[in-house]
Amino acid sequence: MRETAPHSLDAAILTFARSWYGYGGGSAEDIYVEFGLPARTYFERLRQILDSPTAANVDEETRDAMRSVCVRRLH
Question: Of 58, 64, 21, 65, which Cα lies nearest the Cα of 42?
């Protein structure tokens, strides 16, 4: 994983998710290249971020859509 502060990494994950949720969340390869994380770990972390203050500026409809992507990719 990149040497990045947790808050900064969470913000980067959220930014990536906002760009890719409409396309199914991004490929496992893109996620690994961007964050050095397996897709499962990324989507688990994103799910946590969506319920944290980091996602406070994301409207509820977008958060729900991103949560749906997480659910699909984790199951």
Answer: 21
